Automatic annotation (TrEMBL):
Organism: Diaphorina citri (Asian citrus psyllid)
Catalytic activity: L-threonyl-[protein] + ATP = O-phospho-L-threonyl-[protein] + ADP + H(+); L-seryl-[protein] + ATP = O-phospho-L-seryl-[protein] + ADP + H(+)
Annotated GO biological process: intracellular signal transduction
Name of the gene this protein is made from: LOC103510905
Cofactors required: Mn(2+); Mg(2+)
Entry protein name: non-specific serine/threonine protein kinase
Domain Protein kinase: 39-235
SMART domains (UniProt xref): S_TKc
Cited InterPro entries: Kinase-like_dom_sf, Prot_kinase_dom, Protein_kinase_ATP_BS, Ser/Thr_kinase_AS
KW Cell membrane (keyword) present: no
Family: Belongs to the protein kinase superfamily. CAMK Ser/Thr protein kinase family. LKB1 subfamily.
GO cellular component labels: cytoplasm
Length: 235
């Protein structure tokens, strides 16, 4: 036993080799860090028709954030692209709720013709989670928990006169602690506070989640019911 242990120890020691300090090669390559204001740019999280989403780090608080990056030229090629982004910024600035994505900051780089929307960081979305499940659906208890959070967020939006118009799993994000966040307000609509009802005349949401009255081409639609219908389809 003693001889075998010595042999093993000897083999282990032979793995390491002594190197003099003058033989050590150091890589002095400098990695350039991209900063947007006080935020350190990170890895790519996703990419859509409007732009890219990257991870960010607040250099002061060390909080993780997400940034939506828009190129003005690209927005100009998309029907209502600039209008939708401006609308999203305006709405998010006035909204604050546990189940609605929070807008932290906005930066505009006129030289590069880019706009940066600094948002709350989420670890993923319901659509990605559904795609990774065997039957493309959650257990009842899990779906129930997410649906209750969706209704809480939707109730708040409607109390503020906001019609989302594009509720679907792809626009529902999750934080690290499992909090659901309603996101993507590009096609949302803010009702006139002097109107006596929730009638809307346009809807640009995803066809699969749209209410029958939209598919039938009705000229006037109940905005609140549109969101409720798409929430039911999502469930």
């Amino acid at each position: 036993m003693g001889d075998k242990d010595d042999e093993v120890d000897g083999d282990m020691i032979s793995i390491f080799h002594r190197v003099d300090s003058d033989q050590v090669i150091y890589d002095n390559k400098t990695i350039k860090v991209k900063m947007i204001g006080k935020y350190v740019m990170g890895d790519l999280l996703g990419e859509g028709s409007y732009g890219k989403v990257k991870e960010m780090l607040d250099s002061e608080t060390l909080c993780r954030r997400a940034v939506k990056i828009f190129k003005k030229k690209k927005l100009q090629r998309i029907p209502n692209g600039e209008i939708n982004v401006d609308r999203e910024i305006r709405l998010l600035k006035m909204l604050q709720h546990r189940n609605v994505i929070g807008l932290v900051d906005v930066f505009v780089n006129d030289k590069k013709q880019k706009m940066y929307l600094i948002m709350e960081y989420c670890v993923g979305g319901l659509q990605d989670m559904l795609d990774s499940t065997p039957y493309k659906k959650f257990p009842i208890w899990q779906a129930h928990g997410y649906f209750l959070q969706l209704l809480d967020g939707l109730e708040y939006l409607h109390s503020q006169g906001i019609i989302h118009k594009d509720i679907k799993p792809g626009n529902l994000l999750l934080t690290l602690d499992g909090t659901l966040k309603i996101s993507d307000f590009g096609v949302a609509e803010s009702l006139d506070m002097f109107l006596h009802d929730d009638t809307i005349t346009t809807s640009q949401g995803s066809p699969v989640f749209q209410a029958p009255e939209i598919a039938n081409g009705l000229p006037e639609i109940s905005g609140y019911k549109v969101d409720i219908w798409s929430s039911g389809v999502t469930l």
